[in-house]
Write a structure and sequence with these properties.
transmembrane transporter activity; 3 domains; TRAP_DctM-Dct_fused; cell membrane; transmembrane helix
Protein backbone atom coordinates (compact mmCIF):
# COMPACT_ATOMS: atom_id res chain seq x y z
CA UNK A 1 0.00 0.00 0.00
CA UNK A 2 1.44 3.33 -0.96
CA UNK A 3 -0.60 5.92 0.82
CA UNK A 4 0.74 9.43 0.69
CA UNK A 5 1.94 9.33 -2.89
CA UNK A 6 1.24 12.40 -4.97
CA UNK A 7 0.23 12.25 -8.61
CA UNK A 8 3.07 11.87 -11.05
CA UNK A 9 4.52 14.68 -13.14
CA UNK A 10 2.29 13.96 -16.08
CA UNK A 11 -0.83 14.47 -14.00
CA UNK A 12 0.60 17.73 -12.67
CA UNK A 13 1.28 19.08 -16.14
CA UNK A 14 -2.35 19.14 -17.25
CA UNK A 15 -5.72 18.58 -15.67
CA UNK A 16 -7.58 16.19 -17.95
CA UNK A 17 -11.00 14.63 -17.53
CA UNK A 18 -9.66 11.94 -15.21
CA UNK A 19 -8.02 14.49 -12.90
CA UNK A 20 -11.09 16.74 -12.87
CA UNK A 21 -13.33 13.76 -12.02
CA UNK A 22 -10.98 12.68 -9.25
CA UNK A 23 -10.91 16.20 -7.81
CA UNK A 24 -14.74 16.38 -7.84
CA UNK A 25 -15.07 12.97 -6.16
CA UNK A 26 -12.47 13.94 -3.54
CA UNK A 27 -14.05 17.33 -2.76
CA UNK A 28 -17.49 15.72 -2.43
CA UNK A 29 -16.09 13.06 -0.10
CA UNK A 30 -14.20 15.57 2.05
CA UNK A 31 -17.29 17.77 2.42
CA UNK A 32 -19.21 14.65 3.45
CA UNK A 33 -16.55 13.73 6.02
CA UNK A 34 -16.37 17.19 7.57
CA UNK A 35 -20.16 17.46 7.70
CA UNK A 36 -20.47 14.05 9.36
CA UNK A 37 -17.59 14.18 11.84
CA UNK A 38 -18.31 17.71 13.02
CA UNK A 39 -22.11 17.37 12.79
CA UNK A 40 -22.40 20.59 10.74
CA UNK A 41 -25.78 19.61 9.20
CA UNK A 42 -24.92 21.31 5.91
CA UNK A 43 -28.09 21.67 3.81
CA UNK A 44 -29.88 19.94 6.69
CA UNK A 45 -28.12 16.64 5.91
CA UNK A 46 -27.80 14.18 8.80
CA UNK A 47 -26.70 10.67 7.86
CA UNK A 48 -26.78 7.38 9.70
CA UNK A 49 -23.32 5.85 10.09
CA UNK A 50 -24.17 3.07 7.64
CA UNK A 51 -25.30 5.44 4.90
CA UNK A 52 -22.32 7.71 5.54
CA UNK A 53 -19.89 4.80 5.05
CA UNK A 54 -21.80 3.67 1.94
CA UNK A 55 -21.40 7.06 0.27
CA UNK A 56 -17.79 7.54 1.39
CA UNK A 57 -16.73 4.11 0.14
CA UNK A 58 -18.57 4.59 -3.14
CA UNK A 59 -16.89 7.92 -3.93
CA UNK A 60 -13.37 6.72 -3.22
CA UNK A 61 -13.81 3.26 -4.77
CA UNK A 62 -14.99 4.97 -7.97
CA UNK A 63 -11.89 7.14 -7.74
CA UNK A 64 -9.69 4.04 -7.42
CA UNK A 65 -10.71 2.92 -10.94
CA UNK A 66 -9.51 6.29 -12.23
CA UNK A 67 -6.26 6.19 -10.26
CA UNK A 68 -5.23 2.61 -11.20
CA UNK A 69 -5.52 1.08 -14.64
CA UNK A 70 -6.26 -2.57 -15.46
CA UNK A 71 -2.65 -3.57 -14.79
CA UNK A 72 -2.53 -1.72 -11.47
CA UNK A 73 -0.37 1.13 -12.77
CA UNK A 74 -0.89 4.47 -11.08
CA UNK A 75 -2.26 7.55 -12.87
CA UNK A 76 -2.16 6.17 -16.40
CA UNK A 77 -4.63 7.51 -19.02
CA UNK A 78 -8.10 6.21 -18.07
CA UNK A 79 -9.64 3.86 -20.62
CA UNK A 80 -13.28 3.14 -21.37
CA UNK A 81 -13.33 0.16 -18.97
CA UNK A 82 -12.06 2.35 -16.12
CA UNK A 83 -14.86 4.87 -16.67
CA UNK A 84 -17.46 2.09 -16.90
CA UNK A 85 -16.29 0.52 -13.62
CA UNK A 86 -16.31 3.93 -11.91
CA UNK A 87 -19.87 4.52 -13.16
CA UNK A 88 -21.00 1.06 -11.99
CA UNK A 89 -19.49 1.79 -8.59
CA UNK A 90 -21.40 5.06 -8.29
CA UNK A 91 -24.62 3.36 -9.41
CA UNK A 92 -24.42 0.31 -7.13
CA UNK A 93 -23.05 2.34 -4.22
CA UNK A 94 -25.84 4.87 -4.70
CA UNK A 95 -28.34 2.02 -4.39
CA UNK A 96 -26.74 0.92 -1.10
CA UNK A 97 -26.97 4.45 0.29
CA UNK A 98 -30.55 4.98 -0.91
CA UNK A 99 -31.75 1.72 0.68
CA UNK A 100 -29.65 1.93 3.85
CA UNK A 101 -32.65 2.50 6.13
CA UNK A 102 -34.66 -0.27 4.46
CA UNK A 103 -31.66 -2.56 4.85
CA UNK A 104 -31.53 -1.95 8.61
CA UNK A 105 -35.29 -2.27 9.12
CA UNK A 106 -35.67 -5.48 7.08
CA UNK A 107 -32.40 -7.22 7.96
CA UNK A 108 -31.04 -7.57 4.43
CA UNK A 109 -27.79 -9.03 5.74
CA UNK A 110 -29.72 -12.28 6.31
CA UNK A 111 -32.70 -11.97 3.96
CA UNK A 112 -32.05 -9.55 1.09
CA UNK A 113 -34.64 -9.33 -1.75
CA UNK A 114 -33.51 -10.58 -5.21
CA UNK A 115 -32.69 -7.14 -6.59
CA UNK A 116 -30.57 -6.32 -3.53
CA UNK A 117 -28.75 -9.64 -3.90
CA UNK A 118 -27.72 -8.82 -7.47
CA UNK A 119 -26.48 -5.39 -6.36
CA UNK A 120 -24.50 -7.11 -3.59
CA UNK A 121 -22.80 -9.38 -6.13
CA UNK A 122 -21.95 -6.40 -8.32
CA UNK A 123 -20.60 -4.21 -5.53
CA UNK A 124 -18.54 -7.06 -4.04
CA UNK A 125 -17.07 -7.79 -7.49
CA UNK A 126 -16.11 -4.12 -7.85
CA UNK A 127 -14.47 -4.21 -4.41
CA UNK A 128 -12.43 -7.28 -5.40
CA UNK A 129 -11.30 -5.63 -8.64
CA UNK A 130 -10.43 -2.41 -6.80
CA UNK A 131 -8.42 -4.42 -4.26
CA UNK A 132 -6.54 -6.17 -7.07
CA UNK A 133 -5.63 -2.90 -8.75
CA UNK A 134 -4.63 -1.05 -5.58
CA UNK A 135 -3.25 -3.88 -3.42
CA UNK A 136 -1.78 -6.28 -5.95
CA UNK A 137 -2.57 -9.77 -7.18
CA UNK A 138 -1.44 -11.68 -4.06
CA UNK A 139 -3.69 -9.69 -1.75
CA UNK A 140 -6.57 -9.98 -4.24
CA UNK A 141 -6.26 -13.80 -4.36
CA UNK A 142 -6.25 -14.06 -0.55
CA UNK A 143 -9.22 -11.71 -0.22
CA UNK A 144 -11.20 -13.47 -2.96
CA UNK A 145 -10.64 -16.91 -1.45
CA UNK A 146 -11.75 -15.75 1.98
CA UNK A 147 -14.68 -13.75 0.56
CA UNK A 148 -16.12 -16.96 -0.90
CA UNK A 149 -15.12 -19.02 2.13
CA UNK A 150 -18.52 -18.94 3.93
CA UNK A 151 -20.10 -20.59 0.87
CA UNK A 152 -17.99 -23.76 1.30
CA UNK A 153 -16.89 -23.56 4.96
CA UNK A 154 -18.83 -26.70 5.87
CA UNK A 155 -16.71 -28.82 3.53
CA UNK A 156 -13.36 -27.72 4.95
CA UNK A 157 -11.70 -30.09 7.47
CA UNK A 158 -11.35 -29.07 11.10
CA UNK A 159 -10.08 -26.83 12.59
CA UNK A 160 -10.94 -24.56 9.64
CA UNK A 161 -14.54 -25.61 9.12
CA UNK A 162 -17.33 -23.21 9.97
CA UNK A 163 -20.98 -22.32 9.52
CA UNK A 164 -21.89 -22.53 5.82
CA UNK A 165 -24.09 -20.13 3.83
CA UNK A 166 -25.34 -20.03 0.27
CA UNK A 167 -23.51 -17.83 -2.22
CA UNK A 168 -26.26 -15.20 -2.20
CA UNK A 169 -26.40 -15.23 1.60
CA UNK A 170 -22.62 -14.88 1.75
CA UNK A 171 -22.44 -11.78 -0.40
CA UNK A 172 -25.57 -10.21 1.03
CA UNK A 173 -23.88 -10.51 4.42
CA UNK A 174 -20.66 -9.02 3.05
CA UNK A 175 -22.40 -5.95 1.60
CA UNK A 176 -25.37 -5.30 3.88
CA UNK A 177 -24.03 -6.21 7.31
CA UNK A 178 -21.91 -3.95 9.51
CA UNK A 179 -19.38 -6.74 10.08
CA UNK A 180 -17.77 -7.10 6.65
CA UNK A 181 -17.07 -4.53 3.91
CA UNK A 182 -18.50 -1.79 6.10
CA UNK A 183 -17.12 -3.24 9.34
CA UNK A 184 -14.31 -2.19 11.67
CA UNK A 185 -11.70 -1.29 9.00
CA UNK A 186 -14.06 1.02 7.11
CA UNK A 187 -15.44 2.51 10.33
CA UNK A 188 -11.90 3.35 11.45
CA UNK A 189 -11.17 4.85 8.04
CA UNK A 190 -14.30 7.00 8.01
CA UNK A 191 -13.83 8.12 11.59
CA UNK A 192 -10.14 8.75 12.28
CA UNK A 193 -7.80 7.55 9.53
CA UNK A 194 -9.00 9.91 6.83
CA UNK A 195 -8.11 13.02 8.83
CA UNK A 196 -4.51 11.94 9.33
CA UNK A 197 -4.06 11.00 5.68
CA UNK A 198 -5.25 14.51 4.77
CA UNK A 199 -2.89 16.03 7.36
CA UNK A 200 0.11 14.11 5.98
CA UNK A 201 -0.66 15.09 2.38
CA UNK A 202 -1.14 18.79 3.20
CA UNK A 203 1.98 18.87 5.37
CA UNK A 204 4.05 17.43 2.52
CA UNK A 205 2.69 19.85 -0.07
CA UNK A 206 3.13 22.92 2.12
CA UNK A 207 6.82 22.31 2.82
CA UNK A 208 6.63 20.36 6.06
CA UNK A 209 8.49 17.36 4.66
CA UNK A 210 11.33 19.57 3.40
CA UNK A 211 11.54 21.33 6.78
CA UNK A 212 11.89 18.15 8.80
CA UNK A 213 14.48 16.80 6.35
CA UNK A 214 16.49 20.04 6.68
CA UNK A 215 16.10 19.81 10.46
CA UNK A 216 17.58 16.30 10.44
CA UNK A 217 20.43 17.53 8.23
CA UNK A 218 21.13 20.40 10.61
CA UNK A 219 21.08 18.17 13.69
CA UNK A 220 23.23 15.22 12.62
CA UNK A 221 24.40 15.79 9.04
CA UNK A 222 27.99 16.78 9.88
CA UNK A 223 28.66 13.96 12.37
CA UNK A 224 30.30 10.71 11.27
CA UNK A 225 27.90 8.72 9.14
CA UNK A 226 25.79 11.87 8.98
CA UNK A 227 24.05 11.05 5.71
CA UNK A 228 22.76 7.76 7.13
CA UNK A 229 21.72 9.40 10.38
CA UNK A 230 19.76 11.99 8.40
CA UNK A 231 18.06 9.09 6.61
CA UNK A 232 17.09 7.59 9.98
CA UNK A 233 15.50 10.80 11.23
CA UNK A 234 14.01 11.95 7.93
CA UNK A 235 12.64 8.58 6.78
CA UNK A 236 11.33 7.82 10.23
CA UNK A 237 9.33 11.01 10.28
CA UNK A 238 8.10 10.68 6.70
CA UNK A 239 7.10 7.05 7.24
CA UNK A 240 5.08 8.05 10.27
CA UNK A 241 3.07 10.43 8.08
CA UNK A 242 2.62 8.26 4.98
CA UNK A 243 2.19 4.84 6.58
CA UNK A 244 3.82 3.25 3.53
CA UNK A 245 7.28 1.69 3.51
CA UNK A 246 7.62 1.57 -0.27
CA UNK A 247 6.49 5.13 -0.99
CA UNK A 248 8.68 6.38 1.84
CA UNK A 249 11.76 4.62 0.40
CA UNK A 250 11.08 5.99 -3.06
CA UNK A 251 10.45 9.52 -1.73
CA UNK A 252 13.29 10.04 0.75
CA UNK A 253 15.70 7.47 -0.67
CA UNK A 254 16.20 9.51 -3.84
CA UNK A 255 18.09 12.05 -1.70
CA UNK A 256 19.46 9.99 1.19
CA UNK A 257 20.94 7.00 -0.68
CA UNK A 258 23.18 9.06 -3.05
CA UNK A 259 24.31 11.13 -0.04
CA UNK A 260 25.27 7.97 1.86
CA UNK A 261 27.12 6.57 -1.15
CA UNK A 262 28.99 9.85 -1.60
CA UNK A 263 30.24 9.82 2.03
CA UNK A 264 31.63 6.26 1.94
CA UNK A 265 28.75 3.90 2.67
CA UNK A 266 28.57 0.76 0.55
CA UNK A 267 25.62 0.48 -1.80
CA UNK A 268 24.02 -2.38 0.12
CA UNK A 269 24.39 -0.58 3.49
CA UNK A 270 22.92 2.62 2.08
CA UNK A 271 19.93 0.68 0.70
CA UNK A 272 19.52 -1.29 3.93
CA UNK A 273 19.65 1.84 6.09
CA UNK A 274 16.92 3.54 4.07
CA UNK A 275 14.76 0.40 4.10
CA UNK A 276 15.07 -0.02 7.88
CA UNK A 277 14.42 3.66 8.60
CA UNK A 278 11.35 3.67 6.35
CA UNK A 279 9.99 0.46 7.90
CA UNK A 280 10.39 1.85 11.40
CA UNK A 281 8.52 5.00 10.43
CA UNK A 282 5.27 3.08 10.09
CA UNK A 283 5.70 2.00 13.72
CA UNK A 284 6.55 5.45 15.06
CA UNK A 285 4.11 7.85 16.76
CA UNK A 286 2.46 10.27 16.48
CA UNK A 287 0.78 9.02 13.28
CA UNK A 288 2.01 5.43 12.62
CA UNK A 289 0.04 5.06 9.40
CA UNK A 290 -3.49 3.74 9.05
CA UNK A 291 -3.03 0.45 10.92
CA UNK A 292 -2.76 1.99 14.37
CA UNK A 293 -6.16 3.67 13.97
CA UNK A 294 -7.71 0.35 12.98
CA UNK A 295 -6.09 -1.09 16.11
CA UNK A 296 -7.73 1.62 18.19
CA UNK A 297 -11.11 0.53 16.81
CA UNK A 298 -10.40 -3.14 17.54
CA UNK A 299 -9.34 -2.38 21.11
CA UNK A 300 -12.00 0.31 21.70
CA UNK A 301 -9.43 2.65 23.21
CA UNK A 302 -8.23 6.17 22.37
CA UNK A 303 -5.56 6.29 19.69
CA UNK A 304 -3.40 8.43 21.99
CA UNK A 305 -2.98 5.46 24.34
CA UNK A 306 -1.75 3.28 21.48
CA UNK A 307 0.66 5.99 20.31
CA UNK A 308 2.07 6.40 23.82
CA UNK A 309 2.45 2.64 24.23
CA UNK A 310 4.25 2.40 20.87
CA UNK A 311 6.67 5.22 21.71
CA UNK A 312 9.18 3.17 23.72
CA UNK A 313 9.39 0.18 21.29
CA UNK A 314 9.79 2.59 18.38
CA UNK A 315 12.52 4.50 20.20
CA UNK A 316 14.32 1.21 20.93
CA UNK A 317 14.29 0.29 17.24
CA UNK A 318 15.65 3.65 16.11
CA UNK A 319 18.23 3.81 18.90
CA UNK A 320 19.58 0.39 17.89
CA UNK A 321 19.65 1.41 14.23
CA UNK A 322 21.40 4.68 15.12
CA UNK A 323 23.97 2.81 17.26
CA UNK A 324 24.74 0.40 14.42
CA UNK A 325 25.19 3.21 11.90
CA UNK A 326 27.46 5.12 14.27
CA UNK A 327 29.53 1.98 14.92
CA UNK A 328 29.66 1.22 11.18
CA UNK A 329 30.89 4.73 10.40
CA UNK A 330 33.42 4.74 13.26
CA UNK A 331 34.88 1.36 12.30
CA UNK A 332 35.45 2.56 8.71
CA UNK A 333 36.48 6.11 9.56
CA UNK A 334 33.60 7.69 7.63
CA UNK A 335 32.93 11.41 7.91
CA UNK A 336 29.79 13.47 7.82
CA UNK A 337 28.48 15.69 5.08
CA UNK A 338 30.35 18.80 4.01
CA UNK A 339 29.40 22.09 5.64
CA UNK A 340 28.08 23.39 2.31
CA UNK A 341 25.63 20.44 2.12
CA UNK A 342 24.18 21.00 5.57
CA UNK A 343 21.66 23.80 6.23
CA UNK A 344 22.26 25.93 9.29
CA UNK A 345 20.11 24.67 12.14
CA UNK A 346 19.24 28.15 13.42
CA UNK A 347 18.18 29.30 9.96
CA UNK A 348 16.12 26.13 9.42
CA UNK A 349 14.28 26.64 12.72
CA UNK A 350 13.75 30.34 12.02
CA UNK A 351 12.02 29.58 8.73
CA UNK A 352 10.18 26.43 9.72
CA UNK A 353 9.20 26.82 13.38
CA UNK A 354 5.49 27.09 12.44
CA UNK A 355 5.55 23.40 11.44
CA UNK A 356 6.60 22.55 14.99
CA UNK A 357 3.67 24.62 16.24
CA UNK A 358 1.29 22.62 14.02
CA UNK A 359 2.62 19.34 15.37
CA UNK A 360 2.31 20.71 18.88
CA UNK A 361 -1.38 21.39 18.30
CA UNK A 362 -1.87 17.90 16.83
CA UNK A 363 -0.25 16.15 19.79
CA UNK A 364 -1.98 18.41 22.36
CA UNK A 365 -5.41 17.64 20.93
CA UNK A 366 -4.71 13.90 20.74
CA UNK A 367 -3.00 13.39 24.10
CA UNK A 368 -4.50 16.09 26.35
CA UNK A 369 -7.93 16.77 24.86
CA UNK A 370 -8.38 13.19 23.56
CA UNK A 371 -9.94 14.47 20.31
CA UNK A 372 -8.30 12.10 17.81
CA UNK A 373 -10.97 12.65 15.17
CA UNK A 374 -10.85 16.44 15.22
CA UNK A 375 -7.10 16.89 15.82
CA UNK A 376 -5.83 16.47 12.24
CA UNK A 377 -8.53 18.74 10.78
CA UNK A 378 -7.73 21.63 13.14
CA UNK A 379 -4.02 21.05 12.47
CA UNK A 380 -4.63 21.22 8.71
CA UNK A 381 -6.59 24.45 9.17
CA UNK A 382 -3.75 26.00 11.18
CA UNK A 383 -1.24 24.75 8.61
CA UNK A 384 -3.13 26.37 5.72
CA UNK A 385 -3.37 29.66 7.61
CA UNK A 386 0.35 29.63 8.45
CA UNK A 387 1.13 28.65 4.86
CA UNK A 388 -0.19 31.97 3.55
CA UNK A 389 2.52 33.79 5.53
CA UNK A 390 5.35 31.64 4.12
CA UNK A 391 6.35 33.04 0.70
CA UNK A 392 8.22 29.94 -0.46
CA UNK A 393 5.25 27.63 0.05
CA UNK A 394 2.26 29.96 -0.27
CA UNK A 395 -0.86 28.29 -1.61
CA UNK A 396 -1.96 28.82 -5.21
CA UNK A 397 -4.92 27.41 -7.07
CA UNK A 398 -2.67 24.96 -8.90
CA UNK A 399 -0.98 23.84 -5.70
CA UNK A 400 -4.42 23.42 -4.12
CA UNK A 401 -5.46 21.23 -7.06
CA UNK A 402 -2.29 19.16 -6.60
CA UNK A 403 -3.04 18.74 -2.90
CA UNK A 404 -6.59 17.60 -3.61
CA UNK A 405 -5.31 15.18 -6.27
CA UNK A 406 -2.71 13.83 -3.85
CA UNK A 407 -5.32 13.35 -1.13
CA UNK A 408 -7.77 11.75 -3.56
CA UNK A 409 -5.14 9.37 -4.90
CA UNK A 410 -4.08 8.28 -1.40
CA UNK A 411 -7.60 7.86 -0.06
CA UNK A 412 -8.86 6.03 -3.17
CA UNK A 413 -6.02 3.53 -2.88
CA UNK A 414 -6.51 3.06 0.84
CA UNK A 415 -10.29 2.69 0.49
CA UNK A 416 -9.97 -0.01 -2.19
CA UNK A 417 -7.63 -2.02 0.03
CA UNK A 418 -9.64 -1.49 3.23
CA UNK A 419 -12.91 -2.57 1.59
CA UNK A 420 -11.16 -5.74 0.45
CA UNK A 421 -9.80 -6.35 3.94
CA UNK A 422 -13.35 -5.98 5.24
CA UNK A 423 -14.28 -9.11 3.27
CA UNK A 424 -11.76 -11.06 5.37
CA UNK A 425 -13.36 -9.77 8.55
CA UNK A 426 -16.81 -10.65 7.20
CA UNK A 427 -15.76 -14.19 6.28
CA UNK A 428 -14.63 -14.96 9.82
CA UNK A 429 -17.70 -13.30 11.29
CA UNK A 430 -20.13 -15.20 9.03
CA UNK A 431 -18.58 -18.62 9.66
CA UNK A 432 -17.76 -18.21 13.36
CA UNK A 433 -14.27 -19.47 12.56
CA UNK A 434 -12.38 -16.96 14.73
CA UNK A 435 -13.69 -18.48 17.97
CA UNK A 436 -12.90 -22.09 17.05
CA UNK A 437 -9.39 -21.24 15.80
CA UNK A 438 -8.50 -19.70 19.16
CA UNK A 439 -9.13 -23.01 20.93
CA UNK A 440 -7.26 -24.98 18.28
CA UNK A 441 -4.21 -22.72 18.48
CA UNK A 442 -4.15 -22.99 22.28
CA UNK A 443 -4.41 -26.79 21.99
CA UNK A 444 -1.55 -26.98 19.45
CA UNK A 445 0.67 -24.76 21.62
CA UNK A 446 -0.13 -26.83 24.70
CA UNK A 447 -0.98 -23.63 26.61
CA UNK A 448 2.71 -22.66 26.32
CA UNK A 449 2.82 -18.92 25.76
CA UNK A 450 6.31 -18.99 24.22
CA UNK A 451 5.33 -21.57 21.63
CA UNK A 452 2.21 -19.54 20.87
CA UNK A 453 4.30 -16.37 20.42
CA UNK A 454 6.69 -18.15 18.06
CA UNK A 455 3.73 -19.47 16.08
CA UNK A 456 2.26 -15.98 15.98
CA UNK A 457 5.52 -14.41 14.82
CA UNK A 458 5.95 -16.97 12.04
CA UNK A 459 2.32 -16.58 10.93
CA UNK A 460 2.53 -12.78 10.92
CA UNK A 461 5.76 -12.92 8.92
CA UNK A 462 4.27 -15.23 6.29
CA UNK A 463 1.09 -13.19 5.91
CA UNK A 464 3.10 -9.97 5.90
CA UNK A 465 4.73 -11.17 2.67
CA UNK A 466 1.51 -11.08 0.68
CA UNK A 467 -0.61 -8.52 2.49
CA UNK A 468 -0.36 -4.87 3.34
CA UNK A 469 0.46 -4.09 6.97
CA UNK A 470 -3.18 -3.19 7.64
CA UNK A 471 -4.53 -6.37 6.02
CA UNK A 472 -2.05 -8.56 7.87
CA UNK A 473 -2.86 -6.91 11.19
CA UNK A 474 -6.63 -7.23 10.79
CA UNK A 475 -6.43 -10.88 9.78
CA UNK A 476 -4.23 -11.80 12.76
CA UNK A 477 -6.14 -9.58 15.18
CA UNK A 478 -9.16 -11.79 14.47
CA UNK A 479 -7.42 -15.16 14.39
CA UNK A 480 -4.34 -14.95 16.59
CA UNK A 481 -4.76 -12.11 19.10
CA UNK A 482 -7.54 -13.81 21.14
CA UNK A 483 -5.37 -16.92 21.55
CA UNK A 484 -2.40 -14.88 22.77
CA UNK A 485 -4.65 -12.93 25.14
CA UNK A 486 -6.09 -16.21 26.44
CA UNK A 487 -2.50 -17.23 27.19
CA UNK A 488 -2.31 -14.41 29.74
CA UNK A 489 -0.51 -11.74 27.71
CA UNK A 490 -1.29 -8.01 27.85
CA UNK A 491 -3.97 -7.16 25.27
CA UNK A 492 -2.38 -3.99 23.87
CA UNK A 493 1.06 -5.61 23.82
CA UNK A 494 -0.37 -8.53 21.82
CA UNK A 495 -1.80 -6.24 19.14
CA UNK A 496 1.45 -4.27 18.89
CA UNK A 497 3.32 -7.58 18.65
CA UNK A 498 1.21 -8.54 15.64
CA UNK A 499 1.73 -5.13 14.04
CA UNK A 500 5.52 -5.37 14.43
CA UNK A 501 5.81 -8.88 13.05
CA UNK A 502 3.59 -7.98 10.12
CA UNK A 503 6.19 -5.34 9.16
CA UNK A 504 9.21 -7.65 9.42
CA UNK A 505 8.77 -8.99 5.89
CA UNK A 506 9.62 -5.55 4.44
CA UNK A 507 13.29 -6.05 5.36
CA UNK A 508 13.51 -9.87 5.38
CA UNK A 509 14.34 -11.92 2.27
CA UNK A 510 12.96 -13.54 0.21
CA UNK A 511 10.33 -10.75 0.06
CA UNK A 512 12.00 -7.65 1.63
CA UNK A 513 10.03 -5.19 -0.52
CA UNK A 514 11.43 -2.17 1.30
CA UNK A 515 15.02 -3.34 0.85
CA UNK A 516 14.43 -4.22 -2.80
CA UNK A 517 12.97 -0.79 -3.54
CA UNK A 518 15.99 0.84 -1.89
CA UNK A 519 18.36 -1.50 -3.76
CA UNK A 520 17.00 -0.25 -7.08
CA UNK A 521 17.98 3.29 -6.06
CA UNK A 522 21.39 2.25 -4.75
CA UNK A 523 22.26 0.08 -7.75
CA UNK A 524 23.00 -3.04 -5.72
CA UNK A 525 21.77 -6.61 -5.47
CA UNK A 526 18.30 -6.78 -3.86
CA UNK A 527 19.21 -9.94 -1.92
CA UNK A 528 22.42 -8.39 -0.57
CA UNK A 529 20.50 -5.29 0.47
CA UNK A 530 17.86 -7.52 2.08
CA UNK A 531 20.35 -9.48 4.20
CA UNK A 532 22.13 -6.28 5.21
CA UNK A 533 18.75 -4.81 6.21
CA UNK A 534 18.16 -7.89 8.37
CA UNK A 535 21.37 -7.15 10.25
CA UNK A 536 20.82 -3.41 10.61
CA UNK A 537 17.17 -3.86 11.55
CA UNK A 538 17.70 -6.98 13.67
CA UNK A 539 16.22 -5.34 16.76
CA UNK A 540 12.81 -5.34 15.06
CA UNK A 541 12.77 -9.14 15.55
CA UNK A 542 13.55 -8.82 19.26
CA UNK A 543 11.60 -5.76 20.40
CA UNK A 544 8.11 -7.34 20.03
CA UNK A 545 9.14 -10.22 22.31
CA UNK A 546 10.57 -7.75 24.82
CA UNK A 547 7.39 -5.73 25.28
CA UNK A 548 4.91 -8.58 24.98
CA UNK A 549 6.73 -10.49 27.75
CA UNK A 550 7.43 -7.37 29.80
CA UNK A 551 4.54 -4.83 29.46
CA UNK A 552 6.68 -2.29 31.34
CA UNK A 553 8.15 -1.48 27.92
CA UNK A 554 4.80 -0.15 26.75
CA UNK A 555 4.34 1.81 29.96
CA UNK A 556 1.98 -0.67 31.59
CA UNK A 557 3.57 -0.71 35.07
CA UNK A 558 4.66 1.57 37.87
CA UNK A 559 7.09 4.42 37.20
CA UNK A 560 10.07 2.69 38.86
CA UNK A 561 9.52 -0.57 37.03
CA UNK A 562 9.12 1.23 33.70
CA UNK A 563 12.31 3.23 34.28
CA UNK A 564 14.38 0.14 35.10
CA UNK A 565 12.97 -1.88 32.20
CA UNK A 566 13.46 0.94 29.68
CA UNK A 567 17.00 1.70 30.88
CA UNK A 568 18.03 -1.95 30.61
CA UNK A 569 16.35 -2.29 27.21
CA UNK A 570 18.17 0.73 25.76
CA UNK A 571 21.52 -0.45 27.14
CA UNK A 572 20.87 -3.96 25.84
CA UNK A 573 19.86 -3.06 22.28
CA UNK A 574 22.78 -0.63 22.08
CA UNK A 575 25.20 -3.44 22.96
CA UNK A 576 23.53 -5.73 20.44
CA UNK A 577 24.00 -3.13 17.71
CA UNK A 578 27.66 -2.61 18.62
CA UNK A 579 28.23 -6.37 18.72
CA UNK A 580 26.77 -6.78 15.26
CA UNK A 581 29.07 -4.07 13.88
CA UNK A 582 32.15 -5.02 15.89
CA UNK A 583 32.75 -1.57 17.34
CA UNK A 584 32.09 -0.29 20.87
CA UNK A 585 31.10 3.37 20.75
CA UNK A 586 33.44 5.62 22.79
CA UNK A 587 35.94 2.76 23.15
CA UNK A 588 36.95 1.21 19.86
CA UNK A 589 36.79 -1.81 17.56
CA UNK A 590 36.66 -5.49 18.44
CA UNK A 591 39.41 -6.59 16.08
CA UNK A 592 42.03 -9.28 15.72
CA UNK A 593 41.86 -12.94 16.67
CA UNK A 594 38.67 -13.97 18.42
CA UNK A 595 36.80 -10.85 17.34
CA UNK A 596 33.74 -12.81 16.20
CA UNK A 597 33.54 -14.60 19.55
CA UNK A 598 33.77 -11.24 21.33
CA UNK A 599 31.13 -9.73 19.06
CA UNK A 600 28.81 -12.66 19.75
CA UNK A 601 29.36 -12.35 23.50
CA UNK A 602 28.60 -8.62 23.37
CA UNK A 603 25.42 -9.13 21.36
CA UNK A 604 24.25 -11.98 23.61
CA UNK A 605 25.06 -9.92 26.68
CA UNK A 606 22.95 -7.10 25.29
CA UNK A 607 20.13 -9.55 24.61
CA UNK A 608 20.00 -10.69 28.24
CA UNK A 609 20.36 -7.16 29.62
CA UNK A 610 17.45 -5.97 27.45
CA UNK A 611 15.05 -8.33 29.21
CA UNK A 612 15.95 -8.31 32.92
CA UNK A 613 12.54 -9.53 34.01
CA UNK A 614 10.46 -12.19 32.26
CA UNK A 615 7.48 -12.97 34.47
CA UNK A 616 6.00 -15.48 32.02
CA UNK A 617 9.27 -17.41 31.89
CA UNK A 618 9.54 -17.59 35.66
CA UNK A 619 12.88 -15.77 35.62
CA UNK A 620 13.43 -13.49 38.60
CA UNK A 621 14.29 -9.82 38.31
CA UNK A 622 17.98 -9.20 37.69
CA UNK A 623 18.93 -12.79 36.85
CA UNK A 624 19.21 -12.29 33.09
CA UNK A 625 20.68 -8.80 33.57
CA UNK A 626 23.50 -10.24 35.66
CA UNK A 627 24.15 -12.90 33.02
CA UNK A 628 24.17 -10.23 30.32
CA UNK A 629 26.67 -8.06 32.18
CA UNK A 630 28.93 -11.07 32.68
CA UNK A 631 28.87 -11.86 28.97
CA UNK A 632 29.45 -8.24 27.91
CA UNK A 633 32.27 -7.58 30.39
CA UNK A 634 35.08 -9.24 28.43
CA UNK A 635 34.33 -7.58 25.05
CA UNK A 636 34.03 -4.19 26.75
CA UNK A 637 37.34 -4.75 28.59
CA UNK A 638 39.07 -5.74 25.33
CA UNK A 639 37.74 -2.63 23.57
CA UNK A 640 38.84 -0.41 26.48
CA UNK A 641 42.35 -1.89 26.49
CA UNK A 642 42.55 -1.48 22.72
CA UNK A 643 41.69 2.19 23.06
CA UNK A 644 44.19 2.72 25.86
CA UNK A 645 46.91 1.05 23.82
CA UNK A 646 46.04 3.19 20.79
CA UNK A 647 46.21 6.41 22.84
CA UNK A 648 49.56 5.39 24.26
CA UNK A 649 50.94 4.77 20.76
CA UNK A 650 49.64 8.13 19.55
CA UNK A 651 51.28 9.99 22.46
CA UNK A 652 54.54 8.15 21.88
Amino acid sequence: MQTGDAPDRQSRATLGGREVALILLTVAALLLVVNQLFNLRLFGIVLLDGRYLNILATLFLAGAFLVFDLRGRRMQPAGLLDWVLAALTLGSGGYLAATAMQNVNEGWEFAAPPQAQWVAFLFAALVLEGTRRAGGLVLAIIVTLLAFYPSFAGYVPAPFSGFQSTLSETFSYHVYSSESIFGIPMKAFGGVVIGFIIFGAVLQQTGGGAFFNDLALGLVGRYRGGAAKVSIFGSGFMGSMSGSVISNVLTTGVVSIPAMRRTGFSARTAAATEACASTGGVLMPPIMGATAFVMASFLSMPYAEIALAAAIPSALFYFALFAQIDAYAARRGLRGLERSEVPRLRETLRKGWPYVLVFGLLIFMMVVLRQETAAPFYSVLLLLVINQFMPGHRMTLRKLADIVLGIGTSLAELTAVILGIGLIVGAFSATGLAGTLVNELLFIAGDNVFVLLLMGAATAFVFGMGMTATACYIFLAIVLAPALEAGGLDRLAVHLFILYWGMVSYITPPVALGAYAAASLAGTSPMRAGFEAMRLGSIIYLVPFLFVLNPSLIGNAGATEVFVAVSCAFLGVGLIGMGLQGYVICLGPLAGRGQYLLRTMLAMGGFFIAMPAMPFAGVGFGTTAALGLALAALPLLVAWRSKSQHLTEVRA
